[in-house]
Amino acid sequence: VDIKINGFYKTVKYEYETFNLTLHSYICNISDPKLIILNEHINSKWLKKEELLTVDWAKADLPIVKKLMEE
After folding, report:
1. If you average pLDDT over every residue of the chain, what do you get?
2. Closest CA to 55 of 24, 47, 10, 63
3. Helix ranges restricted to H, 1-71
4. Which H helix or E strand runs over 11?
């Protein structure tokens, strides 16, 4: 799969009860979304901005989701 990174988006530092996480996010384009193979997640789906809050996001993901929704 060909992925083009358009630019850095946001870094989130989050402290869970048992570990700390630093999450870097980027805005990207993908040549063919059907070629994505999941290794760490059960499911995936493409969402419109207004649909983003229909997913049960991890707490560390929420600042990125909220920024996407504001743009």
Report:
1. 93
2. 47
3. 62-70
4. strand 3-15
Query: Number of C-alpha atoms within 13 angstroms, CB side, residue 20?
Result: 2
**Per-residue tokens: 51:** 């649909």
Residue (of 47, 44, 28) closest to 36 by Cα position: 44
In sequence order, the 6+-apart residues with CB closer than 8 A to the CB of 31 are 1, 2, 3
Residues 69 and 48 sit within 8 Å (Cβ to Cβ): no
4-11: long-range pairs with CB below 8 Å, 24+: 4/28, 4/29, 4/30, 9/64, 9/67, 10/63, 10/64, 10/67
Q: What is the pLDDT of residues 41-53, one digit of tens each?
A: 878 888 999 999 9
